[in-house]
Amino acid sequence: MTTAGTEPPAPAQDPGEEISVEDITKRFGAVQALSGVTLAFPRGRVTALMGENGAGKSTLLKILTGDHQPTEGSILWNGRPRTLSSPHDAHKAGIRIIPQEPEIIPHVSVAENVYAGALPRTALRRLDRAELRRRITADLARLGFEKVIHPDQLGSELTPAQRQLVEILRALTGEAKVIAFDEPTSSLSENEVEALFGLIDRLRDQGIAVIYVSHRMKEIFRLADRIAVLRDGTVAGVLEARDTNEGEVVRLMVGRDLSSLFVRQDVARDEVVLQLEGVTTDDVSGIDLHVRAGEVVALAGLMGAGRSELALALAGDRPIRSGRVCVNGSPLRLRSPRDAIRASIGLAPEERKAQALFLHRSIRDNTSLVSLDRLRRWRFVRSRQEKAVAQDFSDRLRVRTPSIEHEVRKLSGGNQQKVVLARWLLRKPKVLILDEPTRGIDIGAKAEIYRIIADLAREGVALLVISSELPEVLGLADRIVVMQNGRITGELNRAEATEEAVLNLAMADDLAPVAADRPLTDSADGDAR
Q1: Taking a C-beta distance cutoff of 8 angstroms, is the pair 303, 469 a contact?
Q2: From the centroid of its chain, how far is CA 264?
Q3: Of 122, 235, 258, 511, which is least packed with CB atoms within 10 Å of its CB?
Q4: What is the domain count for the chain?
């Protein structure tokens, strides 16, 4: 076992030792998830595993970690077949996976979450809290996370980013030989991402085989030595990262060229649909903003800039302390999400699973959720009409599913996002706010989401898009409004917008954060609260 608080030692392996899979096929009933997959994951190298949602990446990782057994084929360790019949077998062999959705015990501390199953004990078999604190403090310092997470925080108090860090710490206890990261940066800040990349570089240098799953091309080309691409359950190709480019990787992933990924158009009208005047909440201050019919306005900024908080306030989920919010010139009182829905404002939030979807309910139920008042007759929902409209929007948005009665939790991230969009298309909002609309979804699904956004703009919907991906911001927006510390620092039109210009405004250092204890103030007639 690794001594906590020290660098994990290079595993005792022969120079050529590696884990690989040979002719792996996996069937779930009539569905074939993998077919004849042969891949090697060499020690001391970072192998990026890429592919659209549904390409087989998650299935392959679950086979490597003992969660699934292959229908056919073998797992090889240094060229010799090895059976991993359970996650315990895989963990014992030194294989770790850091999942996209962390599994955290809510009622115990960070330290106990990290060392769950291997807690230090005293001679009387009681929890040795002093030793536990020494280990977790040393590990946080070693990995560069001591400023972003506290050992005594309860699991229930952790942010999504902190939950991800706990999973990383947990994976690095013991003698890891293969570590797989599944979309590890989806909830991390820029500083946390850099700390993670430094950690992965050190793991590579120590001879550990790293498997890195991400849809973010910039990360892939920053970290990867090799890029393995899956398409429809088969290996589409394995490329040396230094010898390829984004275009070639995308063509392998989707089987076509996506050079026209963004649908640029000029359909904005003169009519101002959404108008914000001096909007102030506990998180943002003095926000002046307008969005016209058919216009795509992007809110850019770094994590903590206040963009999502502003979106939640406009959706009636956070109190507005002062200022005015108007739709088509009419002032609103946004005291609840119901007020926003009635005012024809829709929100597709950043955390779609936690904030937007009923994961154990059907596509039909999730699609019709905010339109039940329009589907009722007397006190009863007209089920035939509900099914018809849910099927119609599922078809229009190309949701990949065997049935609209399928549970949403079983869909890929891209298809889940389409269900959220279908909900609002059915409602026909005048204003639609999209917070990180393509986070965690593959490049093919991104192209379809961009098409939907273009279609909505053509129909005259006022679109406010929040995104942390600068190429997406530049590709989608007619105008870019940049926030920092809860305030707007500038605005750029399409002609003058560049990544450098956006970042200069996002990193303005002369703004103090908005005070959280701002007193409640009354505003003029009709102001939102």
Answers
A1: no
A2: 25
A3: 122
A4: 2
The token duo for 354 is: 């936690």
Tokens (6 digits) for 131: 């030793």
Residue 109: which CATH number? 3.40.50.300
Domain that holds residue 524: 260-344+431-437+462-529
The confidence band for 339, taking pLDDT boundaries of 50, 70 and 90, is very high
The 3-state secondary structure of 312-344 reads HHHCCCCCCCEEEEEECCEECCCCCHHHHHHCC
- Where are the alpha helices (H) located in 129-278, listed in sequence order? 129-143, 160-171, 190-205, 217-223, 246-254
Q: Is residue 399 part of a domain?
A: no
**What φ, ψ does residue 170 adopt, rounded to 5°?**
-60, -40
More confident residue, 170 or 74: 74
What does the pLDDT read at residue 9?
Answer: 39
**Is residue 244 one of the residues assigned to a domain?**
yes
Return the structure tokens found at 429: 């909002």
Does residue 152 fall inside a structural domain?
Answer: yes
Residue that has been written with the tokens 């379809």 in this structure: 448
Res 509: pLDDT: 56
Helices (H) and strands (E) in the chain, counts: 18, 22
Dihedral of CA atoms 499, 501, 504, 508 in degrees, nearest 10, equals -120
Q: How many residues comprise the chain?
A: 529
User: Does residue 239 sit in the same domain as residue 272?
Assistant: no
Question: What's the distance, CA 96 to chain centroid?
Answer: 21
Question: Tokens 């200022």 map to which residue?
Answer: 323
Tell me the average pLDDT across 372-383: 78
For residues 340 and 256, give the distance between their C-alpha atoms in angstroms, rounded to a whole number.
40
CB 167 within 8 A of CB 188: no
Cβ atoms within 10 Å, residue 2: 14
Whether residue 23 is found in the same domain as residue 151:
yes
Residue-wise pLDDT tens digits, 483-513: 988 999 999 998 888 888 888 888 765 555 5
Same domain? For 106 and 170 the reply is yes
Report d(CA 178, CA 286) in Å as an integer. Answer: 50
Distance CA 70, CA 52 (A): 21
State whether 278 and 236 are in the same domain.
no
Per the structure block, which two tokens stand in for 451? 């098409």
Whether residue 94 is found in the same domain as residue 109: yes
- Looking at the predicted structure, is the pLDDT value of residue 529 above 50? no
On whether residue 136 sits in a domain, the answer given is yes
Same domain, 281 and 228: no
* Whether the model pTM is above 0.70: no
How does DSSP assign 60-84, residue by residue?
Answer: HHHHHTTSS--SEEEEEETTEE---
H helices of 477-514, in order, are: 499-506
Residue the block writes with tokens 């315990």:
88
Q: Which residue has the tokens 């984004």?
A: 246
Q: Is the pLDDT of residue 445 over 70?
A: yes
Identify whether residues 290 and 337 lie together within a single domain: yes
Q: What is the pLDDT of residues 172-204, one digit of tens each?
A: 776 788 999 988 887 677 777 887 888 889 889
